[in-house]
Amino acid sequence: LSMILLVILVGCGEESRTIFTENDISIVPKPLEMKFNQGAFRFNEDTKLVAPKDQGEVLDVLKDKFTAAAGWTLEVLDTAPRSNFVLLSTDSSMAEEGYDLKVMDNQIIIKANGLNGFLYGLETIRQLLPVAIESKSLVNNINWDIPKVEIKDSPRFKWRGFMLDVSRHFFDKDYVLATIDQLALLKMNTLHLHLVDDQGWRIEIKKYPKLTEVGGFRVDQEDKPWNARPTPDLGTETTYGGFYTQEDIKEIVAYASSRGVTVVPEIEMPAHVMSAIAAYPELSCFQKPIMVPSGGVWPITEIYCAGKDSTFEFLENVLLEVMELFPSQYIHVGGDEATKTNWEICPDCKKRVANEGLANVEELQSYFIQRMERFLSSKGRILLGWDEILEGGLAPGATVMSWRGVKGGLEASEAGHDVVMTPNSHCYFDYYQGDQDAEPLAWGGNLPLSKVYQFDPVVDEMTAEQAKHVLGGQANLWTEYVPTYDQAEYMTYPRLAALAEAVWSSKANRNWDDFSNRVESLFERYGKMGINYAKSAYQVTT
Ligand code: TNX
Predict the structure, then answer these.
(1) Secondary structure element (H or E) that encloses residue 185, with its range
(2) Amino acid 542: pLDDT
(3) Which catalytic reaction applies to this protein (predicted)?
């Protein structure tokens, strides 16, 4: 009799685990393959986290969640106990950034070939757990169960990016670190920081301290719309600004690397640099003293002088410090929207045109970028630029970011260059995401969640050969109309989730109805995390 009782008791213990159905599973981005089995794994205080020696740090993404929400400090080991563990197991045959996740009754195994795969396996577990795992304070009376699934997953594209414009408005280090966490949750691996623009220079450069002392600050005119802010007179006291010290940058880069994210710095040239010229007027053709503008200046004529060698010396020195801080293979040099009226009349520029045998000053743009490309490639880096760098001939080793639609991507890939697709039609998160009368002021355009979801970095017009040159895709948050952290979150989430699926999931696995169901659990998760996501985005499906 006692045997029977024991069996019943043990049986009951098992049955008390949550009974899941396949509909309870909601992972964004959608995994490549998933098999659902009956049963559940239960996390408890004794669950061990097991990683190869010296690779245990990645486990923090899960460990810290349990510490906050369950109050447990899960132990990390380097060999697996008999049962009740999550094991990271290295398998060099696995696809880059891919992972196999197998959830069994009493153990969970994640196979991957390195950090990103392990991380993504753990982020998937996080999304299988009750949403309460996102809580920052203790949650009682909850079973930390996850369904017994077998997942085989790997990304469609290797560049899964998000750009944050920290120039038009400054976003401090903590906001950047929080953004990195959100990228990792969605299995995104690239954070492009737009560190330089007319309205602010945001990275400390030791050799040129005025870049941030002067170029990092401006006269606050936030009360006026972006396009109605006159450039202030010289001598006016500045009231808005900020920048990252080199220590801040080191912290951001190190944190990103622990979350599988590469930080790509963008140092704009030859235009969108009024902040630098305000600090060092000698960088322009006519040394005219200017202020850092608060609003948009159009057309942008105050640009670096392409005639003086000292401009290139300055840029090389800046990039040397930048490369010291950012291990990224790609260095973004901007290249967009330069109006060459000063170059037309500048004697040094005219001389350069003649000496280099160029047809006109327009060709100086491509001279400029090619010269920077030679410098960067001599240091083992790859130059990346907006699609304007195609004009007048692309530098040999350059990679192109196609933003004015897909044209630049088509042209560059046809010429055998790599491209990152970020067409403004689908990837510009500064655009409205719903009814313009109901939404907060934005740049214009119309980019609801459903349209982001339709984004595909490979377009029909591409041949198979061209498609091979598509590294992936990226969303860009330009921040002219994004003055606060709350507003930045509002513009970013959940559209970033739609973009993440477009760059991670297989084409066959993408389905809007299915995604819109899954995004609802993500809303709950964002809610628990205290993220100001746009609920409105979801209601608009046109
Ligand atoms: C174009 S995209 C720009 C940015 C603006 C953005 C606004 C690009 C390379 N240049 O300077 O912020 O449009 O949508």
Answers:
(1) helix 173-185
(2) 39
(3) Hydrolysis of terminal non-reducing N-acetyl-D-hexosamine residues in N-acetyl-beta-D-hexosaminides
